[in-house]
């Protein structure tokens, strides 16, 4: 069981350090988007080859995330994060050097991006598990809300930062990765003190424990994973749609377009922070907020084809962003608190992989369906609404344990407090 953090100054340093880690995952792809056309022309490659710069990073990270979770359960989260940061930074350095070496070495750039994806797998998902090891009850939900808000803010600033760095040189942004990763790795090494009494079990027993967890809690975990994937799939699909809309109708590119795209993401970040501060450990409230958030997303998607005014469209996208900000922090606290610390890294990492898949699938699906706008948006409205109904049915509040003031402690159908004693 993790020891609670009592020193306020130390706690602030830890929170600030942990909140920088999600930026690593976000910067990996989002910061490159503004320079992709330039990269294509400077390297004399096809659009498909440019897409591999993004895709190979994403695929590598998605595949390796569960392995990173297992390693964090076995050998500790702190050092998995630190080593991953150094791998991530090294990948960025290789990519940057390959970009300027002899007019650009595309093959080596791909190798660097694969290495970056390998490192990125051990960052944000492991940080979420580490938060649950270090903090209890209300502090846990608060910090996870900050982590989600930081993730959203990273998505806001990444395209803008990429556009600004491109003013120096299109490849300059690759050299930001090693600098940023080294700084964060040093901060993690210095400020984070992982609980030493976290239980470690033999590998065979670890597998058995995971199997028992899925037998006991698999149904609602799968629904929670689906809710996270659907939320991010729709959010990033809509952002892609808005990006194309702004470029074709208004000719917006670079920093101006990034500022407009920031509007729904700022709504998501602000609501994520607010939600994390107020949900505490009340499971019933979390379930209601997840359902409300998904319904807001469904309504927002359903109205998009009916809106022809740009300002109304942006207001509608604010609703979608706000709905996402209700859903994601609640899922974070439910999933990271669902199991004991000995297998938390693996479960959280599986959730991270599913989130990553949702983010990766949104833009291509919305691109492929762009000419069928009614089917696209009404179909996704049905998807979000159906997921809300599924959550309402599966995430049931049973005979809970009531805390002070009548608050219902985190206690799902299968007795979560037995998995994590810090919650009861």
Automatic annotation (TrEMBL):
One GO CC annotation, please? plasma membrane
What CDD domains does the record point to? MFS_YfmO_like
List all membrane-crossing ranges: 12-36, 48-72, 79-101, 168-192, 218-242, 254-276, 288-307, 313-335, 347-368, 374-395
Localization recorded for this chain is: Cell membrane
Q: What is the lineage of its organism?
A: Bacteria, Bacillati, Bacillota, Bacilli, Bacillales
Domain Major facilitator superfamily (MFS) profile: residue ranges: 14-399
Tell me which InterPro entries the record gives: MFS (IPR011701), MFS_dom (IPR020846), MFS_Efflux_Transporters (IPR050189), MFS_trans_sf (IPR036259), Sugar_transporter_CS (IPR005829), Tet-R_TetA/multi-R_MdtG-like (IPR001958)
- Family that this chain belongs to: Belongs to the major facilitator superfamily. TCR/Tet family.
Where is this chain primarily localised?
membrane
By its UniProt entry, which PROSITE patterns does this protein fall under? MFS, SUGAR_TRANSPORT_1
Q: Does the keyword Transport apply?
A: yes
Q: Which UniProt keywords apply?
A: Cell membrane, Membrane, Transmembrane, Transmembrane helix, Transport
Key word Transmembrane present in the record?
A: yes
The Swiss-Prot or TrEMBL record annotates one GO molecular function as: transmembrane transporter activity
Q: How does it sit in the membrane?
A: Multi-pass membrane protein
The protein in question is named: MFS transporter, ACDE family, multidrug resistance protein
